[in-house]
Amino acid sequence: MNQQEKNNWMRDKKILVVDDTEINVQLTKIYLKRTGIKGENIVVAIDWLDAVEKSTQALFDLILMDVNLPWINWSEASKIIKSNPKTSKIPIIGFTAADRYIDTENVFNDVIIRPINKEVFSVRLLEILNGQHIKN
């Protein structure tokens, strides 16, 4: 698949970005748009409650979630989303600024370390959305 085909395939994917830091949200949106996803298909949630609510309001193809959410542990938020039959199949990628990160709860399909490497991000996103990199 060449770059144009990838962008066309990605264009209509719906992504939920869960992050309470505005600069991280803006950077994530930039990277998502570079992969071909339309801006109107990127929805932002600022905390776990917003994420749980928005995840049931639309059919998302992917959730990108900061591992340092306020008020509730990221794994709890992910478990709530995964426990709902309407949202249980949505892959979740965790974001962290830690040098190394181990998903001991095994709730994320993948974890991406910040700062984001745009080439790695694009490849991993494509793999997960294409069902080739599914962990759980």
How would you briefly describe this protein structure?
This protein has 136 residues and is of the alpha/beta class.
Please name the defining characteristics of this protein.
alpha/beta; 5-stranded parallel sheet; 136 residues; 5 strands; Rossmann fold
Describe this structure as you would to a colleague:
It contains five helices and five strands, in the order αβαβαβαββα. It has 136 residues and is of the alpha/beta class. The protein has a single domain (3-129), classed as Response regulator (Rossmann fold). It has a five-stranded parallel sheet with strand order 2-1-3-4-5. Helix 3 (48-55) runs parallel beside helix 4 (74-83). The protein starts with a helix and ends in a 7-residue tail after the last helix. 26% of the residues are buried. The mean pLDDT is 85.
